[in-house]
Design a protein that fits this description.
Elements (H helix, E strand, L loop, with lengths): L4 E3 L14 E3 L6 E2 L2 H8 L8 H4 L23 H20 L71 E5 L6 H7 L4 H6 L13 E5 L10 E6 L7 H8 L3 H8 L12 E6 L1
Antiparallel strand pairs: 1-2, 2-3, 4-5, 6-7
Helix pairs in contact: 6-7
Length: 275
């Protein structure tokens, strides 16, 4: 991992997977780094080949390497001002109607006006004759049964939820005391298979590390090395999330077994294939 990579609040700490909080401290000003550049250089042993790493003096980060950092919401003053104006106008109208404020020419709007009684006029009523019964012929129409295909409900991809079919994978957060040997035995796989499908896996598993584990198999040939990503925006589509991560949406949907237009939920996790 590049020694110049760190989060905005702490240059000595970096996130071990492509994340929008990771910044380059060898650029001036300090800038967020794109997910693609993090995967290719910053988070791998290839960081020594990075042109920014090899420049002698800090300089602005090239535009093609820049990422999009978290946005800070701005407080709008327009709505409070509009609400205050509406409340004041309503109070003024109510004061005029209740007679608390008298304006020339508006005396007729004062509250509790005297009314002139309106005489009641009674008109004779005519009882209509009873209706004549009629017979309406009944026509029997054939009925048609409409078949409706009900889509299969997809379980949200939370931690430890099986993903895909052959092979099934899960995303797991390491608990205190867990090791690669224990997880391999628990999920009926092997340490070699676990290491084969995880990107930048540490030599020794530590608490809260998130990794990918194959279920009931050691055959993982043909699968890429995966990173993991936790969804933090509710209701975003899988295509929009793939665009933000700068990853091909077809690969995201393929390896996470998600259909087109699937809307993600906060707290779900995605498998991110690395080239």
């Amino acid at each position: 991992m590049c020694p110049h990579l760190g989060v905005r609040e702490d240059k000595e700490t970096a996130i071990s997977y492509p994340a929008e909080l990771n910044c380059c401290y060898h650029s001036r000003p300090v800038s967020y780094v794109s997910f693609d550049h993090q995967r290719r250089y910053c988070l791998s042993d290839n960081y020594t080949q990075c042109s920014v790493y090899n420049q002698k003096n800090p300089a602005p980060l090239p535009r093609k390497y820049r990422g999009i950092g978290p946005e800070t919401p701005k407080l709008s003053v327009g709505l409070p001002l509009l609400a205050f104006t509406i409340v004041m106008a309503a109070g003024l109208v109510a004061s005029i109607l209740l007679g608390l404020i008298r304006l020339p020419g508006l005396e007729h709007l004062a509250a509790f006006p005297t009314s002139t009684p309106i005489p009641t006029i009674f008109y004779p009523t005519r009882t209509p004759p009873p209706p004549t019964a009629t017979r309406t012929p009944t026509r029997i129409l054939p009925t048609r049964t409409r078949l409706v295909n009900t889509p299969t409900e997809i379980a949200p991809r939370f931690l430890d939820t099986p993903i895909g079919e052959i092979p099934q994978l899960i995303i797991h957060r390491a608990l205190p005391g867990e090791s690669y040997e224990q997880l391999a035995a628990q999920y009926k796989t092997s340490i070699t298979a676990i290491k084969a499908i995880n990107f930048n896996l540490p030599a020794r598993l530590w608490e809260d590390y998130v990794l990918v584990i194959p279920l009931n198999t050691t055959q993982v040939s043909g699968l890429p090395k995966f990173s993991t990503f936790e969804v933090v925006v509710d209701g975003i589509s899988v295509e929009e999330q793939a665009q933000l991560l700068q990853v091909d949406s077809r690969s995201i949907k393929q390896f996470n077994a998600l259909p087109d237009g699937y809307y993600l939920t906060v707290g779900e996790w995605l498998l991110i294939p690395n080239k």
